[in-house]
Design a protein that fits this description.
This protein is α+β, with helices and mostly antiparallel strands and 235 residues long. Helices cover 45% and strands 9% of the residues. The chain is built from ten helices and four strands, in the order ααααααβαβαβαβα.
């Protein structure tokens, strides 16, 4: 076989191994039976599998019935850039693509929400964790605004959010838990175990921390890095 065969963009493993991969023939008019010991892997096939469908070299080798070393050879031959280890891990965890989808602001209100969300994360966000997006506060309105920002601007599903709650030992954990789950319309299962810490003694903190500090968490390093880059652009 030479380089005359034209591989289609997509094909299931079952189709490939059964020889029923539509459009396999050079002219696309007739399906030819798969030849297992093919030496050359067309560049388009490799690019589609690796870059478009985000398959690993091992998965590509399994689909084409060849070793990962052969896949690596042809990728090097075609100078196709390989994913970093962190990128490969991300793709493996999200095989169907990013769990978010940026919506560019089209109205003044949407632009305001975009700016508000970045401002909230800039001022209140916790950037210590390198793998997730986190923002904690005692203010219900602030938390609601940040969640609205994630949902409407970045298409994050509320069901994919996780929450951490920290209260002082003079606050009823169950009461605080019910407050946040009711006001934010989230499920108790989305919250981690409530952390109870000793109170600070007499002071005005009770009015501010009546229901504890709630931390919004979205475990996605890519979105975290995107927000940080947007903030850097504003400096």
């Amino acid at each position: 076989m030479g380089g005359n065969l034209v591989f289609p963009r997509k094909g299931t493993k079952k189709q490939i191994h059964s020889g029923k991969w539509p459009g396999f023939g050079q002219d696309g008019s007739k399906t030819k039976k798969w030849e297992r010991n093919v030496g050359l892997i067309p560049k388009k096939t490799l690019a589609d599998f690796y870059l478009t469908e985000h398959k690993s070299m091992k998965e590509i080798g399994r689909l084409l019935n060849c070793s990962p070393h052969k896949v690596f050879y042809w990728m090097s031959k075609y100078k196709l850039s390989r994913r970093l280890r962190s990128e490969a891990t991300y793709v493996k965890r999200h095989p169907f693509g990013d769990p978010f989808d940026f919506h560019w602001p089209k109205t003044i209100q949407e632009a305001k929400l975009f700016g508000l969300g970045l401002g909230l994360y800039w001022g209140e966000g916790n950037r210590a964790n390198k793998n997730s997006l986190r923002l904690g506060n005692t203010d219900l309105g602030l938390i609601k605004s940040f969640i609205k920002f994630l949902e409407q601007v970045y298409g994050v599903s509320r069901n994919n959010l996780r929450f951490g709650l920290q209260v002082f030992n003079d606050v009823n954990p169950k009461k605080a838990l019910k407050f946040w789950t009711t006001k934010l319309k989230i499920k108790p299962a989305q919250l981690q175990k409530v952390i109870v810490t000793p109170s600070r003694g007499p002071g005005t903190y009770k009015n501010k921390s009546k229901y504890g500090v709630l931390t919004v968490q979205f475990h996605n390093k890519k979105l975290r890095d995107i927000l940080l880059k947007e903030i850097d652009n504003l400096r």
